[in-house]
Amino acid sequence: MIVCKQCGHHNEDSDTFCGSCGKFLEWTGERVAVAQPEPEPVAPDPEPEPAKLGLIDRVKQAVGIEETAAAPSSPAYPESAPAPVATPAPVSAAPVSAAPVPPAAVAPPPPPPVMWTVPVTSAAPHPDPPPQVAREMATAPAPAPVLAGVGAPIAATPPPTVPSAEEPMSRRPSSVAPTVARPRSAPRTLEAPTRRHPGDLICGQCGEGNDPVRHFCRRCGNSLDEALAVRLPWYRRFFNRVFGVRTREAGWRPHRVGPPNVMGMVWRIIRLAIVALIAVGLLAFLLVPGFHNLVVDRATAAVTTVRKAVHPNYDPVTPIGASASTAIAGHLPTLAIDRYSNTYWAALANDRAPVLVIRFSGTQDLGAIVFRSGASGTAPSDAFNLQPRPHLLHLVFSNGYATDLTLNDQDATQPQFKLLEDGKAKQVTFVEIHVQSVYAPAGASPSSVAITEVEFRTKD
Hints:
It is built from seven helices and 16 strands. With 460 residues, it is an alpha+beta fold. Among the domains are: 1-34 and 193-231, no CATH class; 233-247 and 261-290; 314-459, Galactose-binding domain-like (Jelly Rolls), CATH 2.60.120.260.
């Protein structure tokens, strides 16, 4: 963890710039190590057993040579006054032989006698030596005291230690804190962005992703005031909205303080219940065949109903027969349903209210009717303007539904499409067409009315 000395913000080890003030962390940051748990105490080593003394060691202890050799030689004069030069006086000690040991107690032969020589300095003042002897003593190195019997030199006092150059030296206290020279780092090269998590702020300078709480880029130190956030996937946004999971910014506080929001809790429970029902229904649709078929049928019917209302299809219906109140020879009622545009049905001239009845093979749900008015053919008497054309029609269906239609004065080449009221002409077996008024021929007396073709359509 790197702590910014400028603002105290805690940054990650991989950050280069502070997320709060944008300072360069190599200059203003201080790396803080995470406290590690203290190590467990180590059990002390067991004390070594005292060494067993041999025969020679016991002899040394008895004579007192070991104590004399171990005692440090310290000057008998104070530090202020120079110590006089002591002349070593050879003192010969009487030969000391080991105590006799009975032959039964010791198997090996007794050791040879050892001569011990101990240097002794006299504490009494000596007269000054001659000048020549003093010069030789001054130039000659001081001999180290030697234990003749052992042959090991006695350790001299170590010289005083001098502090090395690496150790800190003392200095006077000053009001200005000492500065530590930092080594200049090598020039940094910007690499490709390494982070793009959902919800991060994308830096417009280097493209690096940053936490939403940061104000400056963690990679280049650029301001994030106008940075764009990475958008969450649609499924995460959906679940966040359903379950109420929201990402709050740093320092967010609720605007309302008081009793708990009961309506919000109720609405959340309702949303959870709806999601649970949808999940159960989806599992039932996938695993239960009967429920699957029922859902498919209901969905198909609903889609068909909507399609019929928005963009319906009209399929033709073929009648099986036709009859009329009157008809002229050669122009029978069946010619009005034969699907030909050069034949027509014509009533007698004295029939003031002609009726045409059309029958179907079964029940039909009718949605529209197509009319082709007037006479049609190749003969001169079949001319359109020589025969009356229907104007106002009254339709009666077998289910009791009745309606009126008004036709335009158009020839057979221009069919007229008329819609029926939705859901009214259902389960129909026949239709009666009553001609109530006609378009009279120009310049001639009224004659028989003519209808070229009548077509029926079902709505699909």
